[in-house]
Amino acid sequence: MEFYNQESNCVFCTSYALYKAQQKILYENEGAYAFLSYKPSNFGHSMIVVKPHIISLRELQSPAVNLFFNAIENTYYALKKIITESPQKIMNFYQNLLIDPPEQESVECAQLQIKKGVPLTSPKGFNWGMNYGYKAGQRVAHLHIHLFPRYNGLGIATAMRKHLN
């Protein structure tokens, strides 16, 4: 599968090449790529994005469905390894957001993660989260899913609380 259907005004379509060049890709396969969120809700919050510019799950056809779910699982393992073996990489990412933020909210989110520091324990679990529609919190019209490491039992509803209104 090739990387097709890119939209020039889509942040996920245009960010892929930049993230690849900057070595910010946590995991990728032919149909999807993953990176640390530039508006982290918690330490290690990541996003998995389908490579073709599509908006809904309905548009995702086989084998892209398998590649997307494969990327979710493999991002989980890649992220768990980074958090366990070299969490400073994630902290460096947040510190760089203070220097070159894609948007102002990135600075606020990064400052909060830096203030909290590196978690003292490894994740106890992970949540996936997909916002589908603007009222559900989806701000980029490109199919993607969030991956949230959980350290102290904090659930997905709490992480997404800012999008409830």
Automatic annotation (TrEMBL):
Cross-referenced SUPFAM superfamilies: HIT-like
Pfam families linked: HIT (PF01230)
Molecular function terms, GO-annotated: catalytic activity
HIT domain: residues covered: 11-159
Ranges spanned by the short sequence motif Histidine triad motif, renumbered to the chain: 142-146
PROSITE patterns in the record: HIT_1, HIT_2
Entry keywords, A to Z: Methyltransferase, Transferase
EC number(s) stated in the UniProt entry for this protein: 2.1.1.-
PANTHER family: AP-4-A PHOSPHORYLASE (PTHR42997:SF1), HIT FAMILY HYDROLASE (PTHR42997)
Protein name, entry field: HIT family protein
